[in-house]
Inverse folding.
């Protein structure tokens, strides 16, 4: 029995001359919650469609629980559930009929949990799908995925259209899933969501995986942000080893430090610092550092 | 870098506005309606021209023409089905009799489908919201779509008229340009009325399918009233209660009555105006006829993709079955009286149309060709429904669960096959019931066989559709309807001996024996079925090996 829930080796997808995914090597252990980040067009949804067998790879392979995603799609799908960012449902069915259909197709449903989820997400299952808002569409496919208690949850922008209260309910469900040992692969634009839920994060850029690790590991690779306020004159921090991006605003100076902070602390102490704040980069800052402040790959 | 800077220059260049922002909805919809008008106008024109030419080729002498007029000119059953048949001894009279009712109904179907697609269909998809964010209102945008539909209607008429006038000017046909223009105008009159009806039902109904169904029911009632009025049972006054009756009263090419345009124009303007008015009085996405937003939990058939397909398609398929069954019954009803006159030159006509045999059986052979065309449309509808599941993304819901592509497609095709076989059986059984009611003497077995005989051409259409779906999914609809339209065109034109055998062979209907006039050709049926199944298998293999593709 493999401990790996999901593995890709050299997974590549081209659309004509466009390389949507370029030799992706990825491994997710069972029970992990992994975030998958990248701007629009980076290759996140392409990766997921390859994992689900909806698209065929140009090269490489993908496995879920040791089974080839292309050759054994039915077997892999028995152990997973998927939530898309945009729910395409049958407009003439009610929410309850949709959940019944999707449950029957999957083959196993925890009915008590399904009913609990309907309450938690405040869904009216008697209404027809065509009368649902976008958020309610999303609730239906979230409940449909969670109610089968799969070993692996593949989520592609799952909270698209949900209000903050429902987002909170979703996070709670993912945390419960993690508690039960389920594996979660979460593609999202919501940094706070990924930061709150994920054990590890992968960052995709132009179809290539450019970062993969825990948040702590990533933060060590990135700069520490320091803010200092002075009574008197402001020292020239740009000459201090490891310091960059120095910005002065009156008596306040903001800068970033890589490596040891000791040289900076000495300079600040000598200059008569009155207030000192430092914080590790947020996931959003790490992400923007990869892509540049304008959000584009650079 | 050079290419990149070129693209940037294009993006940053000021966009030249194409027309006023206040009329952009009209311009956008005009483009779509005109395309459709050109296509259908060509079909209308070719159908009229082929009818005129075929008459001249088949009925060369006055004796033959008088015999035809004597046969059909007084037939009440033929009058009920196809409308009155005055002056059958002339090209004009024959053309009106042969083609006008078909084109009137086709025009109505075109009108209702086009307007519900461009109005309620756009609203269903959510694109209507985007248009309403522009410099327009709900009422204004609806009026603009109707203007676009009007231009499309003008195109339909213009293309029909050009072909009809050119055909009429031939020395052997000799129909004046003025008469041809008037005839073309009458042939698109039902399209005008049903464009308006579709616009109105788009306001009344909650979905496009419902809007089209409402309009189709109105068309069915109109046809039924006209049929009773023309059946010679003393109720001819009812003709003024049916929009199709108004068009019939225009009497093109025989005894023109332009005054009958008055109710047609009044109806079109009134219904169109009502549609615009109602569009301003309701919310976007809502309907005038209250729609049930809630429903009980009905889990019947919701056990998988095939069951769901049956549930979602049953209303549409039932509609087809009603049309097939009802028309087969009517054909059975008139077969005996019409068949009694099938001899001499008429028998020759029937034979050239592919309807061999004697009497009622020959009539059935000809009429069942029309049934085969209807069943062909059912097959095309099934394939496009399969493609729609992929393009609208609902298929993903199954394929991300333990359902393989083969299981899904196999199940869907099995459903389609059962629908086609049952369509053939309905045609045979209902045809027999109609015939039996008139003591025609045709056996149940022979008509059941004739019904099943209609299925193989539809299987070929189904197979070609699945093959296209596997290789070029986005071309599925266009290919399958092109095959059907081409086969139909060959049937219309080719039955009169004007085409070579190799061209005739390209029509799927050409390979079908005209049972029950002659026994079904089971060998040919077996080959057609094998070709259809083989094409579907190749298509199925291709589906397994390709990416899913959205719209």
């Amino acid at each position: 029995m493999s401990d790996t829930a999901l593995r890709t080796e050299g997974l590549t997808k081209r659309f004509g001359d466009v390389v949507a995914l370029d030799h992706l090597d990825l491994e997710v252990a069972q029970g992990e919650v992994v975030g998958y980040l990248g701007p629009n067009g980076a290759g996140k949804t392409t990766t997921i469609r390859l994992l689900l067998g909806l698209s065929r790879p140009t090269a490489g392979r993908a496995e879920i629980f040791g089974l080839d995603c292309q050759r054994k799609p039915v077997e892999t799908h028995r152990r997973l559930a998927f939530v898309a960012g945009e729910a395409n449902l049958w407009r003439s069915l009610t929410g309850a009929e949709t959940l019944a259909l999707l449950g029957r197709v999957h083959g196993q449903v925890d009915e008590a949990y399904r009913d609990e989820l309907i309450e938690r997400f405040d869904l009216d299952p008697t209404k027809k799908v065509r009368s649902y808002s976008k958020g309610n569409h999303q609730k239906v496919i979230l409940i449909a995925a969670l109610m089968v208690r799969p070993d692996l949850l593949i989520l592609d922008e799952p909270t698209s259209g949900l209000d903050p209260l429902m987002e909170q309910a979703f996070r709670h469900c993912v945390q419960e899933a993690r508690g039960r040992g389920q594996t979660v692969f979460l593609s999202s634009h919501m940094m706070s969501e990924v930061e709150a839920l994920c054990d590890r994060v992968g960052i995709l850029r132009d179809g290539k995986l450019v970062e993969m690790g825990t948040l702590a590991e990533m933060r060590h690779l990135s700069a520490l942000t320091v803010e200092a306020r002075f009574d008197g004159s402001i020292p020239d921090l740009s000459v201090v080893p490891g310091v960059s991006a120095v910005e002065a605003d009156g008596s306040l100076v903001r800068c970033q430090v890589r490596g040891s902070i000791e040289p900076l602390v000495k300079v600040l102490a000598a200059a008569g610092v009155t207030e000192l704040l430092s914080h590790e980069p947020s996931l959003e800052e790490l992400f923007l550092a990869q892509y540049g402040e304008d959000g584009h790959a650079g | 870098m050079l290419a990149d800077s070129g693209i940037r220059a294009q993006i940053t260049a000021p966009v030249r506005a194409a027309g006023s922002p206040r009329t952009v909805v009209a311009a956008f919809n005009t483009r779509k309606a005109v395309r459709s008008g050109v296509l259908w106008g060509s079909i209308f024109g070719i159908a009229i021209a082929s009818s005129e030419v075929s008459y001249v080729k088949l009925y060369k002498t006055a004796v033959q023409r008088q015999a035809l007029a004597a046969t059909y000119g007084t037939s009440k059953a033929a009058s009920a089905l196809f409308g009155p048949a005055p002056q059958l001894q002339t090209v004009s009279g024959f053309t009106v009799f042969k083609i006008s009712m078909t084109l009137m109904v086709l025009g109505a179907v075109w009108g209702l489908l086009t307007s519900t697609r461009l109005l309620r269909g756009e609203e269903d998809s959510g694109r209507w919201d985007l248009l309403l964010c522009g410099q327009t209102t709900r009422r204004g945008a609806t009026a603009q779509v109707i203007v676009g539909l009007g231009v499309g209607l003008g195109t339909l008429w213009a293309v029909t008229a050009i072909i009809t006038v050119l055909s009429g000017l031939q020395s052997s046909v000799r129909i004046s340009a003025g008469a041809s223009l008037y005839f073309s105008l009458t042939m698109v009159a039902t399209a005008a009325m049903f464009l308006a009806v579709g616009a109105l039902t788009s306001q009344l109904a909650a979905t496009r399918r419902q809007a089209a169904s409402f309009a189709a029911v109105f068309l069915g009632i109109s046809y039924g009233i006209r049929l009773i009025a023309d059946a010679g049972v003393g109720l001819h006054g009812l003709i003024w209660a049916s929009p199709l009756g108004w068009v019939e009263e225009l009497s093109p090419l025989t005894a023109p009555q332009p005054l009958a345009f008055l109710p047609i124009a009044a109806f079109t303007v009134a219904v169109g105006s009502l549609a615009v008015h109602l569009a301003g009085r309701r919310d976007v996405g809502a309907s005038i006829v209250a729609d049930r937003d809630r429903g009980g939990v009905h889990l019947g058939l919701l056990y998988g993709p095939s069951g769901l397909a049956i549930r979602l398609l049953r209303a549409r398929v039932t509609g087809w079955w009603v049309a097939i069954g009802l028309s087969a019954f009517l054909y059975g009803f008139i077969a005996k009286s019409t068949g009694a006159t099938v001899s001499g030159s008429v028998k020759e006509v029937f034979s050239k149309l592919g309807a061999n045999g004697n009497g009622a059986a020959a009539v059935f052979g000809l009429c069942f060709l029309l049934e085969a065309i209807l069943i062909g449309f059912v097959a095309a509808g099934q394939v496009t429904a399969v493609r729609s599941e992929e393009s609208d993304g609902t298929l993903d819901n199954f394929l991300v669960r333990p359902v393989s592509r083969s299981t899904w497609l196999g199940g869907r095709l099995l459903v389609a096959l059962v629908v086609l076989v049952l369509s053939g059986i309905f045609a045979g059984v209902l045809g027999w019931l109609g015939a039996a009611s008139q003591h025609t003497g045709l056996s149940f077995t022979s008509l059941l066989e004739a019904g099943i005989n209609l299925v193989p051409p539809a299987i070929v259409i189904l197979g070609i559709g699945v093959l296209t779906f596997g290789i070029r999914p986005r071309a599925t609809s266009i290919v399958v309807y092109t095959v059907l339209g081409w086969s139909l065109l060959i049937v219309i034109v080719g039955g009169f001996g004007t085409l070579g055998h190799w061209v005739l062979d390209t029509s799927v209907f050409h390979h079908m024996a005209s049972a029950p006039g002659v026994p079904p050709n089971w060998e040919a049926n077996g080959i057609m079925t094998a070709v259809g199944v083989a094409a579907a298998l190749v298509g199925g293999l291709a589906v397994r090996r390709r990416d899913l593709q959205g719209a």
Remarks:
- Residues 24-58 of chain B form the longest helix (35 residues).
- Residues 1-5 of chain B have pLDDT under 50 and may be disordered.
- Chain B touches chain A at residues 124, 206-207, 292-299, 302-305, 308, 312, 392-394, 396-404, 545-548 (CB under 8 Å).
- The radius of gyration of chain B is 25 Å.
